[in-house]
Amino acid sequence: VGVLSGSAATKPALSYLDAFLAAAQDAYQPDFNPSGTVVLAVAENKLSHEHFLQLVRARGADEPPPESMGYDDMRGLPRLRDALAATLARTFMLGAAEAGAPPLAEELTVSSGAGAVIENVVFATCAPGDSVLIPAPYYPAFNNDLTVRVGAKPWPVKASAYNPAGAYVPTVRDLDEAAAAATAAGAPPRMLLLTHPHNPLGVVWPADAYAGIVKWGLKRGLHVVSDEVYALSIFDDAAQSEFVSAAELACREDVRACGDVDNLLHVIWAFSKDFSGSGLRVGCLWSRNAALNRSMHNLGYFCAVSNYVQNVLAAALEDAEGIDAYLVQNRRR
Questions:
Q1: Please, which pLDDT band fits residue 1 given cuts at 50, 70 and 90?
Q2: Which pLDDT band holds residue 118 (cuts at 50, 70, 90)?
Q3: What is the rounded radius of gyration, in angstroms, for the C-alpha atoms of the chain?
Q4: b/e code 101-138 from CB counts within 10 Å (16+ = b)
């Protein structure tokens, strides 16, 4: 009696969630709680909270348009997707725009956070028991995103002890061995899930090394998902010069020659890190896969973002000068 068929969902979404919540109630404060806890387990950019809120308020957050009260496109309001496309093309997807293939509004889907986007993409592309290859170490919440409803299997890809491209950068041999092991275990790989910049290491992989990993996935016919939620939070100039979005790689002839780029390569981004908005619960998918985008329209019904929030964020993004100033200041902080 009382047993749930979806019992996996009774477990915490994060293995460290209870410890985090307890620590948050005893947070360090130099004057009032000097013996409190400094939480390093969760990446929340509180240094720029107020700056972004000022930008939102200046754009009329207290005056939502009447259409916020009704149903609309479950892939996201056209206004927000237009504003997102312009912002991405001007920032970390600039390389794709300069190559003549900027992100387009119809290629974007808005959902309630990057986690929801990842789960929906896995739901649409993987069957229960399929494996998702993830270079290790990786963001621990991926385990929940992939397994709790979809039943896919996270499969760590351990990098060789030494790699000229840098520690923790998997080689082709590392990827081959992981794929073979997953297949032998009855969990055929269906997706390669990457984070770039890397979470939790906080590094930017060399551009050529990253391209090599993407090309390996495309050659194998895997969906290659690049989680780029930290793309605008790179503070080191040398690392910034190395960063390349998968959207830009999709324009390169050497990458396109490796497989069905337009249907297999996807990028995820969110407001949570770069815009200090983890509580906003707004993420987006960039994909040129028409079938995937249609499925995201259906799945979006279950994780749509409030139209009020979408209009507020669209208004903020439409202030290109204000957004650019925020990003400069955020990088300094």
A1: very low
A2: very high
A3: 20
A4: bbbebebbbbbbbbbbbbbbbbbbbbeeebbbbbbeeb
